[in-house]
Write a structure and sequence with these properties.
Strand content: under 5%
Number of domains: 2
Order of helices and strands: HHHHHHHH
Shape: elongated
Low-confidence stretches: none
Structural class: mainly alpha
Number of helices: 8
């Protein structure tokens, strides 16, 4: 881990403001050991320790070393976005071996075009304050390549109408849907 996290390591060479943190190296070593020995590990570390890279680097090393795919579950969508938009691309530019990463989100994070079309003619809004948001979703749905609600940065998390238009599996008709796109 020193060759990556050390004062003269790959990260220090790629990031001018990188600060060597012995706790980060220790955590990365413990995480790597857990992957190698196939045991569980719980780590607690304070703010500024460098936890994200301390678990990402060993996770990438384990995946590239033949341990199979690694799943990282985050507590918040914000952290998930930080990983996918900042930390993972940074490591992809720094580490010598190439790797890929992908989002895995629940279906309720995506709009169902069929349900959205039905919702436009039935009452699903809890109040007038949702009208503008609903109209934003309608316009966005025509342009979105993915239907991922994360594309709507200003959409509040707990709008009541979303549960009426999301792509949850218990209401999906799959390939029979006229909006199905393989």
């Amino acid at each position: 881990m020193q060759e990556i996290f050390g004062p003269d390591g790959l990260i220090a060479k790629a990031h001018a403001e990188y600060e060597y943190r012995p706790g980060q190296v220790q955590m990365a070593g413990a995480v790597m050991g857990a992957f190698e020995d196939r045991h569980h590990l719980i780590v607690e570390a304070g703010t500024g320790t460098g936890k994200t890279l301390a678990y990402l680097v060993p996770a990438v090393a384990a995946a590239l070393g033949g341990r199979g795919r690694v799943i990282i579950s985050t507590g918040t969508k914000n952290l998930q976005e930080q990983l996918m938009e900042k930390d993972i691309p940074f490591l992809q530019s720094v580490l010598p071996k190439k790797f890929t990463a992908a989002y895995m989100k629940g279906r309720n994070n995506y709009v169902c075009l069929q349900r959205l079309n039905r919702a436009q003619s039935s009452p699903v809004l809890d109040g007038l304050d949702e009208v503008d948001y609903f109209e934003d979703v309608i316009h966005w749905s025509r342009e979105s390549p993915t239907g991922d609600r994360a594309e709507l940065a200003n959409l509040p998390e707990h709008l009541s109408f979303w549960r009426h238009i999301d792509a949850r599996s218990d209401t999906c008709i799959g390939q029979k849907c006229p909006d199905f796109d393989p």
